[in-house]
Amino acid sequence: MDKAYFPMFVDISEKEIVVVGGGNIAARRVKTLLLFSDHITVIAPRLHDSLADLEAEGRITCLHRAYREGDIYNAHIVLAATDDKEVNRSIGEECNILGQKCGRKILFNTADDRTLCDFYFPAVVQTEDIVIGINSGGKNPAKVKEIRRRLGSGPC
């Protein structure tokens, strides 16, 4: 039996977050992350319209190009959401190597291989006073989506 992940709520308001990829998944994750942090950089040659809008509003920083080694040097949290599994995997490896060299942990999540993730990205429902994170450990995203829908609308 797989271990369950402990649901921990952490202040990421001052953490540097890098999202690699500019499609639907990246857009949903950035929208959720913006509820908790203003330090988000997106790296992608092309951006989903909603990401382009967030960049135009000055809410995120975007590098309009493919990922380059070293782009995560100052990051605390990295999300790989490209459509290339090999690129996502190599970014995860770089997080581990850089973290070891610098004596810190860079938390990594990828949209396509839960075995490489340090954390799973939750569905979030937020009201004025309450934040609810819902997760299935990557095993049943459809069920998570359904529960989020029943609890109320959320950004992702």
From TrEMBL:
SUPFAM superfamilies, per database record: NAD(P)-binding Rossmann-fold domains, Siroheme synthase middle domains-like
Q: Which organism is it from?
A: Extibacter muris
Q: Which reaction does it catalyse?
A: precorrin-2 + NAD(+) = sirohydrochlorin + NADH + 2 H(+)
One GO molecular function term of this record is: ferrochelatase activity
Q: Which Gene3D superfamilies match?
A: NAD(P)-binding Rossmann-like Domain, Siroheme synthase, domain 2
* Protein's recorded name: precorrin-2 dehydrogenase
Question: Which top-level group of life is the source organism from?
Answer: Bacteria
One GO term (biological process)? siroheme biosynthetic process
One Pfam family hit: NAD_binding_7
